């Protein structure tokens, strides 16, 4: 009876696309097609540094092969002088051999540097390409919140890129060098010993390559699964870090430990399975690619030496035959080793196929999202696909991206717009209202009623499923959540985020303006610390909840948009400071959509939009006769 493991005690799932048939990574036409699509990203232009490095690697590989042949010939000469007891020739041959070693060492290490630099450039090009797509608009948000084909984008964008580039670079070297060696040694051996000897080894290469490639087919699939489970294990760890406070309040450390160990147990089981497969394949690889190749090599080299009428070897003295055997025998051994390395390179190619499949899938998903297309698997297993507004997909006026989005300054208007979640849940069938600049709106209602959905549609994070939305462009609409985001950087960076200091200067803003905003939110004491606005801290930990909310309001004053969405963003701020901030917004012409249940905020608003959580809503003016609900 199998012993119960952590994965049996704890069951969990991490959102990802579930396909009817899993994609398997093999070394086939699909793999080469995927690799061909990735090549222009790795080598962006024909005349580029990457091309130069590829040529440099080719030249140094030729230099290595020439060095190997030279060392074989001269090592044989040195050994021959020892056997014939010729001291003078021995010293000359040894000095000649010694003089060439520095140059050979330089060639070897130039090759190592070229491979390392090429891998770094491949990774840089691929990283820049992927991040340009990933951080284009709201793609990063859509990948984790709308589309669930990829569960761990961070794993793909960091570890998998590195492993893919390393595997691709090593494969170029591991294939180019053996191919070059085979060409050189076959030519030299054919000229001196005849074509039969190298032909036997080449036939063996063909047989061994086909045989081992067939056996290695599971490698690509196992590599894909390994990276998936590694990403899953890292995600479970990051979840604990992100939600550590909530877990601590619940005293959930034991339960989280079980979840972590269950995730690791799944990874460990797969790694053990993969290890057993690699060991089994390693035994076969060594037998077929190394040991048996050497036996075939010995047999092949014996043929011309056992021939009675060989033009080069027959009739020679035993010493000359011995020297020829050493020279050509070593060439044959090198040829056999090159064939073995080429056969074993298939193993790396199978591994590369796994990484290539994951990179291709990431690029495809990013491309789809940037075109406005996403796919989402529902709880019931059905797939919801957004087609980016393709008119041929459906004649209905209800569906992802079926709504109209218009841009106009100083107004927000919803005309029969349904509030629908990415899963297709309809929260409000038709929402209609109009708000012009200068008219503040208080938004209220129970959890899950559509407040956040309204703002995500306004922010263009979620697609519109119908109706017409009229709103200012993205830069004229600002959102402040209950837990404001604090970036890495200085105190100034917190206020002007997402701008840089150069952006601030181009807008004509100065540090004096920032200090004025800090004064309004009563945070001037932060600037009085060492280095003032240039102070660099881990602001997420340094600032309290109320201070972070006030920094976010100072950020709003800096950007001064036409409209601002305040989502419970002053819940940790005192009423008097809150009132001062809201009054300033009205003074400078920032129109507010506020989500809050504080009665004290009613005086700062002109309309209220109330959802009841059952698909109904009420949009009315606030007057003295209206009962103020809230706390």
Written account of the structure:
Helix content is 59%, strand content 11%. It has 631 residues and is of the alpha/beta class. The strands form four sheets. Strands 8-11-12-6-13-14 form a six-stranded mixed beta sheet, sandwiched between helices. It has a four-stranded mixed beta sheet with strand order 3-7-4-5, with helices on one face. Strands 1-2 form a two-stranded antiparallel ribbon. A hairpin with a 5-residue loop joins strand 4 and strand 5. The protein is elongated.
Round the Cα radius of gyration to an integer and report it: 35 Å
Widest sheet, order of strands: 8-11-12-6-13-14
Mean pLDDT: 81
Distance from N terminus to C terminus (CA atoms, Å) equals: 60 Å
| Quaternary structure annotation | single chain
Number of strands: 14
- Structural class given helices, strands, pairing? alpha/beta
| Proportion of residues in helical segments | 55-70%
Biggest pleated-sheet summary: 6 strands, mixed
Low-confidence blocks of residues: 17-22, 388-395
State the shape: elongated
- Our estimate of the beta-strand percent is 5-15%
| Count of helical stretches | 19
How is this structure best summarized?
The protein is α/β, with parallel strands linked by helices and 631 residues long. The protein is built from 19 helices and 14 strands.
List keywords for this structure.
single chain, 631 residues, 4-stranded mixed β-sheet, 14 strands
Task: Give the helices and strands, then pairings.
Layout: H1 6-9, H2 29-42, H3 49-83, H4 87-134, H5 139-145, H6 153-193, H7 196-215, H8 218-242, H9 244-250, H10 253-306, H11 318-370, E1 373-377, E2 383-387, E3 404-407, E4 411-420, E5 426-436, E6 441-444, H12 451-458, E7 468-471, E8 477-480, E9 489-490, H13 491-496, H14 501-506, H15 511-520, H16 524-527, E10 536-537, H17 539-542, H18 545-559, E11 563-567, H19 575-588, E12 591-595, E13 607-611, E14 617-621
Parallel strand pairs: 3-7, 6-12, 6-13, 8-11, 11-12
Antiparallel strand pairs: 1-2, 4-5, 4-7, 9-10, 13-14
Helix pairs in contact: 2-11, 3-4, 3-6, 3-11, 4-6, 6-7, 6-8, 6-11, 7-10, 7-11, 8-10, 8-11, 10-11, 15-18
């Amino acid at each position: 009876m199998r012993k119960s493991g952590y994965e049996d005690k704890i069951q969990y799932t991490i959102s990802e696309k579930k396909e009817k048939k899993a994609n398997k990574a093999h070394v086939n036409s699909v793999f080469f097609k995927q690799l061909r699509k990735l090549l222009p990203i790795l080598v962006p232009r024909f005349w580029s540094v990457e091309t130069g490095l590829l040529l440099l690697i080719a030249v140094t590989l030729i230099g290595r092969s020439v060095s190997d042949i030279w060392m074989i010939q001269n090592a044989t000469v040195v050994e021959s002088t020892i056997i014939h007891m010729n001291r003078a020739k021995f010293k000359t041959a040894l000095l000649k051999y010694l003089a060439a070693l520095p140059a050979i060492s330089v060639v070897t290490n130039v090759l190592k540097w070229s491979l390392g630099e090429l891998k770094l450039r491949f990774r840089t090009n691929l990283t820049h390409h992927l991040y340009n797509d990933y951080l284009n608009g709201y793609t990063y948000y859509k990948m984790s919140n709308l589309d669930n084909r990829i569960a761990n984008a961070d794993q793909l964008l960091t570890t998998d890129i590195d492993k893919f580039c390393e595997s691709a670079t090593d494969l170029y070297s591991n294939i180019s060098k053996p191919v070059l060696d085979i060409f050189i040694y076959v030519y030299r051996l054919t000229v001196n010993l005849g074509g039969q000897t190298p032909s036997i080894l080449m036939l063996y290469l063909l047989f061994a390559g086909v045989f081992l490639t067939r056996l290695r087919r599971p490698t690509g699939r196992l590599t894909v699964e390994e990276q998936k489970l590694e990403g899953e294990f890292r995600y479970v760890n990051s979840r604990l870090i992100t939600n550590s406070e909530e877990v601590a309040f619940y005293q959930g450390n034991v339960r989280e430990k079980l979840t972590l160990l269950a995730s690791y147990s799944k990874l460990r089981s797969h790694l053990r399975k993969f290890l057993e497969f690699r060991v089994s394949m390693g035994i076969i690889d060594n037998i077929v690619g190394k040991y048996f190749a050497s036996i075939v090599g010995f047999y092949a080299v014996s043929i011309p030496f056992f021939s009675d009428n060989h033009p080069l070897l027959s009739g020679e003295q035993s010493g000359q035959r011995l020297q020829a055997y050493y020279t050509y025998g070593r060439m044959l051994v090198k040829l056999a080793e090159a064939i073995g390395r080429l056969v074993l390179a298939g193993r790396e190619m199978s591994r590369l196929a796994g990484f290539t499949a994951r990179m291709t899938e990431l690029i495809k998903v990013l491309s789809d999202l940037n075109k406005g297309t996403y796919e989402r698997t529902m709880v019931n297993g059905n797939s919801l696909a957004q087609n980016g507004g393709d008119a041929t997909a459906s004649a209905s006026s209800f569906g992802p991206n079926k709504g109209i989005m218009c841009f106009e300054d100083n107004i927000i208007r919803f005309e029969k717009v349904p509030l629908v979640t990415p899963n297709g849940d309809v929260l409000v069938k038709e929402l209609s209202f109009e708000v012009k600049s200068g008219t503040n709106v208080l938004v209220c209602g129970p959890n899950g009623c559509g407040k956040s959905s309204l703002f995500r549609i306004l922010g263009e994070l979620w697609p519109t499923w119908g109706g017409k939305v009229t709103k200012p462009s993205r830069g004229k609409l600002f959102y402040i959540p209950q837990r404001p985001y604090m970036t890495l950087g200085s105190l100034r960076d917190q206020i002007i985020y997402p701008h840089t200091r150069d952006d601030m200067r181009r807008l004509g803003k100065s540090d004096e303006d920032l200090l004025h905003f800090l004064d309004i939110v009563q945070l001037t004491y932060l600037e009085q610390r060492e280095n003032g606005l240039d102070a660099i801290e881990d602001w997420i930990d340094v600032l309290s909840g109320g201070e972070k909310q006030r920094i976010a309001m100072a950020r709003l004053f800096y950007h001064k948009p036409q409209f601002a969405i305040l989502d419970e963003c002053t819940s940790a701020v005192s009423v008097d400071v809150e009132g001062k901030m809201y009054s300033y917004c009205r003074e400078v012409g920032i129109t507010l959509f506020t989500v809050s249940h504080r009665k004290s905020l009613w005086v700062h608003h002109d309309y209220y939009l109330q959802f009841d959580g059952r698909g109904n809503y009420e949009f009315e003016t606030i007057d003295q006769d209206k009962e103020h609900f809230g706390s």
